[in-house]
Design goal:
Elements: H1 12-23, H2 26-48, H3 51-58, H4 61-71, H5 79-96
Helix pairs in contact: 3-5
Length: about 100
C-alpha cells in the first residue's frame, strides 16, 4: 500500500483513480500470477493424493513463510511463530506415517 497510496476519499473518481494505480502496479500482477500457480498446483496435488494428506501438507507454507521472513526479508520472527512452524511440521509428519 505504500507504493499505491492511501484511499481517503470514497468518491467514484477517487475509487477509479485508485483502481488504475492498482491495475498498473507490477507487484499486484505478480501476486495474482503466483496465487494462480499455487491454486493449480493444489488442484494437481489433489488429483494425485488424498485430501486428508494434501491439506495438512500445504500447511507447510507456514514454515516456508517463516524461513523466508527470517532469511530473505531479515525480519524478526517471534518464538511463537517458530513454535507454530514446528507444530505444523510435527503435524504433517504425524499424518504422513
Amino acid at each position: 500500500m505504500k507504493a499505491i497510496g492511501e484511499l481517503s476519499n470514497f468518491h467514484w473518481r477517487a475509487l477509479l483513480k485508485m483502481a488504475g494505480r492498482v491495475a498498473t502496479n507490477g507487484f499486484i500482477g505478480l501476486g495474482i500470477f503466483w496465487k494462480a500457480v499455487a491454486f493449480f498446483s493444489f488442484l494437481a496435488l489433489l488429483a494425485r493424493a488424498d485430501l486428508s494428506w494434501v491439506v495438512p501438507a500445504t500447511a507447510v507454507s507456514f514454515v516456508v513463510e517463516a524461513l523466508a521472513a527470517k532469511y530473505l526479508l531479515s525480519e524478526q520472527v517471534s518464538r511463537t511463530r517458530w513454535a507454530g512452524a514446528v507444530c505444523v511440521c510435527l503435524g504433517v509428519a504425524l499424518i504422513s506415517l
